[in-house]
Amino acid sequence: MEQLFLYLVPFLGIVGLVVMAIKSAWVTRQPTGEQSMVELAGYIAKGAMSFLKAEWKVMIYFVVIAAIILGWSGTLLENSSPIIAVSFVIGAVLSAFAGYLGMKIATKSNVRTTEAAKTSLAKALNVSFTGGTVMGLGVAGLAVLGMGGLFIIFYNMFVLSSGGDVNGHEMETALEVLAGFSLGAESIALFARVGGGIYTKAADVGADLVGKVEAGIPEDDVRNPATIADNVGDNVGDVAGMGADLFGSYVATILASMVLGREIVSNDNFGGIAPVLLPLVIAGLGLVFSIIGTFFVKINSETGNVQAALNRGNWISILLTVAASFFVIDYMLPEGDLVMSRLNSIAFTKMGVFGAVFIGLIVGALMSIITEHYTAMGKGPVNSIIRQSSTGHATNIIGGLAVGMQSTVLPILVLAGGIFSSYMAAGLYGVAIAAAGMMATTAMQLAIDAFGPIADNAGGIAEMSGLPKEVRERTDILDAVGNTTAATGKGFAIASAALTALALFAAYVGISGISTIDIYKADVLSGLFVGAMIPFIFSSLAIAAVGRAAMDMVNEVRRQFKEMPGIMDYTEKPDYEKCVEISTKASIREMVAPGAIALLSPIIVGFLFGHEVLGGMLAGVTVSGVLMGIFQNNAGGAWDNAKKSFEKGVEINGEMYYKGSEPHKASVTGDTVGDPFKDTSGPSMNILIKLTSIVSIVIAPFIPPDSPLGISDNAGVDEIKKVVQLPEALPAEIEVLEIN
């Protein structure tokens, strides 16, 4: 039975990929429409592939150098292996391939969604969501197949072949090598998300400021030179970037649960590996139930509620996963108390583990609901920004910032409650398995998220092709829902990152061999503050990069309008490829610095100051990064939908305002500010959080106990006195304190 469950996991990954191929073939068979539509879609597809090729050229150098270093380091320690380099390369390749799959299907689905919108809203939803489903199943299928397949190989190679202990160093080696897969996936995700975010927002800002505000033409007008680059950006940022992002999140979550599962001594029918194997099985089942959930996403009329249809499919996949998890956990885990051997934890039972999975799924659902409230059209927060747009650009900005900051309260309370309750249910393993439960339906979450950029592209093609008004109205309905689902998807991602980071944090503590992280120590407290600072400088670099790239784009669009006056009367064709080239070069150039911060910070701090200071830094990065991610994602989403509300018409103080009005122009400014928040910096926070933890896990065995600049782990009162230069005579109340 052990072997059956082991091989069931990669088999379920293959099932997901087979269904993906079937749905991809269905999308490809749909009609593409008239020649002008096909031509525009061709420009978008060509630009998207050009970006991916340019990005891959840079990432290949990084992957090769990192693999060589990892392979060399794997020869230095008993509990590692040079094979970690192979694991790293496989993770990087699959992550990049996941982004490629999404990009390919999105650039096929967009024009077919436009053509379907000529018929009905229901047909347009079917095509766009099926395109998103291909993306979701591709990412989840590759992740389940990759993790499941590699675990089988490493388990046989390092544990079974040597007759090793499943709770001993042999399994630790297997999981340390498997961590290379997660490191490769997250590294590529970081570059894909940051590079794609810089690309899409540089193009978007150029199209908005010069096209809509200065030239007075629609954003997706065929005369706008930046419009093709803008539509390309929707794919490279929200499709390829998001695909690599959630691939990395999915893998990191499973890894964290497996690492902590090794700490549990389990007298089960699977040779003691049930706690390690369980996260993989739950991920595989979640993939299957996500496939089932996709069949319930449909509407029957023009007045059908698109958001309700998406929610229905999502909840069905969640409920089925909960039900299946109960029976799987009851079967796999033994009766009686379980406890983690080396880490501080509580005794728990298998029903406690099920409770933690259930909590994780509920936390994910609640995060989506809360994010929808703060970013959806017609809701109070977005309406408050609309009202403040009537008094100018500044008040619109103030309103959006206030909404973003306020939107952190409920998610943090939900996360805190989820962390505490899952810990009480099953200790640190419960926190990790809660994150695994939340990520189990990643295929459905990503399908819902990816359909948005497809609908956005479809609307752009309809506008540029001059199709009838009702076609654009249908694509606008999908696009508006897509903005909300994009925001909820990012909320889901940051929530999973918070739980996963805590699990990875616990795994790091176990691997590093430290028992506590004492913030009474000056160097640890300093590490905490440095960690809290990192998301701010990371965000600053990402947002400034968008600003610089956008300036290049604005200047180019202005140049074309000035030197090619025939553009405005359709007698000259804009140079779309020049704008695509500007965004591509800028994004590749600017993504290096933020990526270097995420990768090098834990290495520098760890080797200079030691395990405990690095732990303090990880805590600071996690807390600060989660807050920054929620704030930026929700503020940007709310600004975006406030702007879109004016396109339908809004009432402010008894007067109606539409596109082109002064309040609308103020909302465009707010949306422009929010663009790098929600599509570049904000979504990158969850990768930053997880990547720093994964790098720390990989380097933990190599960090010496007494690092050059750190305070010794055994430092007592005398050592602390020397460091902070306290007088020899301390008050009696302080002298008796034990500083560990």
Shape: globular
What structural class results from the helix and strand content?
Answer: mainly alpha
Strand content: under 5%
Distance between the termini: 46 Å
Low-confidence stretches: 712-724, 726-740
Order of helices and strands: HHHHHHHHHHHHHHHHHHEEHHH
Work out the helicity level: over 70%
Per DSSP, the total helix count is 21
Query: How does the major sheet shape up?
Result: 2 strands, antiparallel
Kindly state the number of beta strands: 2
Q: What strand line-up does the widest sheet have?
A: 1-2
Cofactor: Mg(2+)
Protein name: Putative K(+)-stimulated pyrophosphate-energized sodium pump
Subcellular location: Cell membrane; Endomembrane system
Catalytic activity: Na(+)(in) + diphosphate + H2O = Na(+)(out) + 2 phosphate + H(+)
